Amino acid sequence: MTRRIRSIDLFAGAGGLTLGFELANAEQDSVRYEPVLAVEHDPAAALTYKTNFGVSVFDGDIEAVDPATYPEAEIILGGPPCQGFSPLGRDRDDRSRRVLNRLWEHFLAAVIKVEPLAFVIENVPEFQKSAEFVELRLRMATHPLLKDYGYGYGVLNAVEYGVPQRRRRGIFVAVRGQDTVPWPPTPTHGESSQLAQPYRTVRDAIGDLPPLPNTDAPVVRNGKQDLHIRRNPRGTSLERYRAIPEGGNRFDLQRSRPDLTPPCWLNKPTGTTDVMGRLWWDRPAYTIRTEFYKPEKGRYLHPKQHRPITHREAARLQTFPDGFIFEGTKIEIARQIGNAVPPILAKAIAEHLADSLL
């Protein structure tokens, strides 16, 4: 008999976690995950969630939600904003970092009110090394309701679960009535011969797409969204792209075309090797972030074409199916794609949890 597991998704974004849990329904029949509510403060992301899942979405800050209004649910999912913990957010002022760093408390308030069978918190790996995470675990040990939950946690690399991208995320999973939760989910992909499947690559994800982008704006055709969006780089940018080989980066540009290299790079002979980086066809991508359309932000150049990856290619590398509809402007859609939990990683978590929810 299949058990219905209703889910609430907090800090839901576009719905990568929810989608992954829905995808798990096709792989196992012990439980069936069904979303009933999402909370998301970004209007475009909230509309994306509602478009794809057709459930009620609270479009606003979670601080404005009265916990008493949460519906019954068996599981609560969520990724409290990570900018306060991420190294990429170190330039934020202290006050905004403190506010972001405490949003996980609203997640626990929902757990205390709803008393679900389980909950899942997703964040950057640094969260699990923070003082706030120490406090979360202390509350799990002392709160009259929370201490009924056993938990497991750690950092998962999405590439080990079928995502064609090296992306490390901190996952915390708790189940009511258990001493602990088995951890981690068993990896399904890797370089070891003991694993059934090799890492998925950039070629696996985007190799069938047209080499040249074919649209100027997001367009829905025949139930699929065309996100293979063209850009119009300057001639100087094109020359820079041409100087970078597959797997190369800004240091290749510095060596072969110093005349095209910005002074700030020429004066910095060391540093990250991902800036102005070109992907490899036959390796996984590196982390897809919100500004993947800017090669100066990371390893986002197409393996062969002299351009950054398109929105469709980024969505594929994040494992969103082509039938998933993103709402908003090009910049808003890029932000949703880069911030999302890869659905295939979420699917692995959902399958790992299924037996514990019976």
Number of helices: 12
Mean pLDDT: 92
Low-confidence stretches: none
The helix/strand order is EHEHEEHHEHEEHEEHHHEEHHH
Question: Biggest sheet, open or closed, and with what strands and sense?
Answer: 7 strands, mixed
Q: Separation of termini?
A: 10 Å
Structural class based on helices, strands and sheet pairing? alpha/beta
Strand content: 15-25%
What strand line-up does the widest sheet have? 3-2-1-4-5-7-6
What is the overall shape?
A: globular
Can you put this structure into words, describing what you see?
With 358 residues, the chain is of the alpha/beta class. The chain has twelve helices and eleven strands. It has a seven-stranded mixed beta sheet with strand order 3-2-1-4-5-7-6, sandwiched between helices. A two-stranded antiparallel ribbon has the order 8-9. It has a two-stranded parallel sheet with strand order 10-11.
What's the gist of this structure?
It is built from twelve helices and eleven strands.
How is this fold's topology laid out?
Elements: E1 3-10, H1 16-23, E2 31-40, H2 43-53, E3 56-59, E4 75-78, H3 94-101, H4 104-114, E5 118-123, H5 131-142, E6 149-157, E7 168-176, H6 202-206, E8 219-221, E9 224-226, H7 235-242, H8 250-256, H9 263-266, E10 277-278, E11 299-301, H10 311-317, H11 330-339, H12 343-354
Parallel strand pairs: 1-2, 1-4, 2-3, 4-5, 10-11
Antiparallel strand pairs: 5-7, 6-7, 8-9
Helix pairs in contact: 1-12
Summary keywords:
358 residues, seven-stranded mixed sheet
